[in-house]
Amino acid sequence: MCGIVGYIGNQDAGGILLTGLSNLEYRGYDSAGIALQNADGVHVFKEKGRIAALRKIVDPDVHATLGIGHTRWATHGEPNRRNAHPHQSASGRFTIVHNGVIDNYNLLKKQYLTGVAFHSDTDTEVIVQLIEHFVNDGMGVEEALRKTLKRAEGSYAIALLDRENDDTLYVAKNKSPLLIGLGDGFNVVASDATAMIQQTKQYVELMDEEIVALTRDGYTIKDLDGHRKTRSPYTVSFDARDTEKGAYPHYMLKEIDEQPAVLRRLLQKYEDKNGTLAIDPAIARAISEADRLYIVACGTSYHAGLVGKELIERIAQVPTEVHISSEFSYNTPLLSKNPLFIFISQSGETADSRSVLVKVKKMGHPTLTLTNVEGSTLCREADYKMLLHAGPEIAVASTKAYTAQIAVLAFIAIAAAEKKKIKLDFDPIHELSLVAQAMERMIDQKALLKEIARRYLSVTRNAFYIGRGIDYYVCQEAALKLKEVSYIQAEGFAGGELKHGTIALIEDGTPVLAFATQENVNNSIRSNVQEVSTRGAYTCIISMEGVTDKPGDQIVLPKVHRFLTPLVCAIPLQLIAYYAALQNECDVDKPRNLAKSVTVE
Ligand code: AGP
């Protein structure tokens, strides 16, 4: 939700900021803006819509070596030019970009800023006006910034320019993500490392309630009481090429295609010297000491968690619950005596999940995060971490992170079974290698999946996915993917549930796509297909070669182990959604109203 960049150095900041914002655009794309500071003052350019619209209005004759930028996902105030960041203080001395929500902004406005003319409807403008208010009271800039942030309740990642100081860029964070990047003769600010990867691979994490004064050749981190902090930089493991689309028309398609390679990479990362799958012994111990696992996640990560529950309970016989993060905080279930919490988050920054993490840590429970982003908040703050190694996922719709999450959950299930001396009836590395091959075979069937999307989804406003058992969890992800990228109203149902109400929605031509990969429920799900077909539904069966297939099935997946079918099902469900989105002329990588990293609750 919103992306921030900043640059202080010796090169032309404008181009660097615009490239950084383009890299960050998946975090929000309602409006965008940059501010460039040079000897003539601060020049603000902002525009409603995408970075492409902003590029058109930035004056190429304005050159500066200091600047900040922002791409917005609107919370307070309509997504228009007036509410686009950067925002400025009354005199124009201070200019700010902000990611987060200041909960008490109205109160601060009433308490300190009566009589100040506001130029936007945002909570952000209150911060910049308050800094100026305290400076007008005689405080130094850093002191005014600290005082303002001590009074601000909520979340923020900010970058601030002071027109009277060309040598410092101020940044601060609380709850919202922010990194500083280090270069030779320059330094940068970014919501995540992908934004500034063209500039540097060296980053320093910031903790909550820290303020940084960034200069061309250094940085000072302090807490809100002005105490100095020190922290070593780290090097990110990807480079600029990993964030590029290459010959692909969309990131989503590229990321779908990458899945077999991601699975093979994961097998390498988690294979030990003896050629068996191994996880950190401390994590295996924590799992074995727990009497129940609680998986907490949102969206696609939640759907991966549902599959994970099935794997952990079936393979390792460890009771497991799965919860939606945003519900957990107030709808907290009765907890077992020795729970272990597992947070699943591609970005590692999802605010709803983080608030549960904070809560259960306070209760003293052990926590494990599965994430794709090393150094992310959820990764840092949990007791244990496991990385997804999927490489940067840029498309808003999660694809390769979903299958990587399921694979890592399978590793957890396998490790937990081994710790409990439960003998597996399959060779995990062999079976997962077969999955990678099966994924490749499905990726090669793009023409068929495109045709399925055309045949079933080109003239419809709604569609249903149905399945039983583990296929039901797949259906929930299939429906989410279809909704978010093609805007077709889609639902994923348990096949047996249809006749308890939903079947009333079936009419002539309603598309119903059924996953049928599990032998034990094959007959039942086919009966459900019959039931809807009799009532006019246009049905499509996705079955598995040699296990559940029958002549006439529209899609037949290559055979894999019954626990691992969701990894292969992911490919057709994602590609069908992708082609349906193209048919509907949707913006595949940046669906309307969404943002990749949901950093507000
Ligand atoms: C997936 O396609 C979504 N855009 C979304 O549901 C996402 O999975 C969810 O917001 C959770 O994000 P996270 O994995 O980064 O925590």
Explain what you see.
It is a single chain. The chain is 36% helix and 22% strand. With 601 residues, the protein is of the alpha/beta class. It folds into 3 domains: 246 residues, Glutamine Phosphoribosylpyrophosphate, subunit 1, domain 1 (4-Layer Sandwich), CATH 3.60.20.10; 175 residues, Glucose-6-phosphate isomerase like protein, domain 1 (Rossmann fold, 3-Layer(aba) Sandwich); 147 residues, 3-Layer(aba) Sandwich (Rossmann fold). Strands 3-2-4-1-10-9-11-15 form an 8-stranded antiparallel beta sheet, with helices on one face. It has a 7-stranded antiparallel beta sheet with strand order 5-6-7-8-12-13-14, covered by helices on one side. A 5-stranded parallel beta sheet has the order 17-16-18-19-20, with helices on both faces. Helix 17 links the parallel strand 23 and strand 24. It is globular. The mean pLDDT is 95. The chain binds 2-deoxy-2-amino glucitol-6-phosphate. The site of 2-deoxy-2-amino glucitol-6-phosphate has 15 residues, from helix 9.
How many strands in all?
Answer: 25
Determine the N-to-C terminus distance: 10 Å
Could you say how many structural domains there are in total? Answer: 3
CATH class of the largest domain: Alpha Beta
Instruction: Look at the structure and name the CATH superfamily of the largest domain.
Output: Aminohydrolase, N-terminal nucleophile (Ntn) domain
**CATH topology heading of the largest domain:** Glutamine Phosphoribosylpyrophosphate, subunit 1, domain 1
Named at the architecture level, the CATH assignment of the largest domain is 4-Layer Sandwich
Helix content: 25-40%
Class inferred from helices and paired strands? alpha/beta
The stretches of 5 or more residues where confidence is low (pLDDT under 50) are: none
Gross morphology is globular
Distinct ligand kinds? 2-deoxy-2-amino glucitol-6-phosphate
